[in-house]
Design a protein that fits this description.
Elements: H1 3-8, E1 12-14, E2 17-19, H2 21-45, H3 53-57, E3 61-64, E4 71-76, E5 79-84, E6 94-101, E7 104-109
Parallel strand pairs: 5-7
Antiparallel strand pairs: 1-2, 3-4, 3-6, 4-5, 6-7
């Protein structure tokens, strides 16, 4: 049923239920607007940055649990991760995650901002 058909009909009688054309038009309009809003949000959300997976870890900060020279452990958001670094790191040093290779984080000392 389209808008033109609704305009031609004075009222729709379905036994005990009577539908006014304006009520049908309002519901149809509300559904169109709701669909447009949902589609708009879906399109805009595709441009938002990723916060999960490997891409979500890069650039974030962690803390060295025990000092190490090339391989060790870091604490990132309450979880212990294996880490590699090209520079020796002391216990408690804040590091920036530069890459993720499997379950090992590539880190470097964090630059203070």
């Amino acid at each position: 049923m389209d808008v033109g058909g609704i305009i031609l009909v004075d009222r729709i009688d379905l036994g005990n239920i009577t539908l006014e054309p304006i009520a049908i038009l309002l519901v149809f309009s509300a559904l169109v607007i709701l669909s447009a809003v949902v589609i708009g949000i879906a399109l805009v959300s595709r441009r938002w940055p990723t916060y999960t997976g490997k891409e979500g870890l890069v650039g974030r900060r962690a803390v060295v649990v025990e000092g190490f020279t090339t391989k060790g452990n870091v604490l990132f958001e309450g979880e212990y991760w294996k880490a590699r670094s090209g520079t020796p790191l002391a216990t408690g040093t804040e590091v920036t995650i530069t890459a993720v290779r499997g379950l090992v984080l590539q880190v470097e000392p964090a630059a203070d901002e």
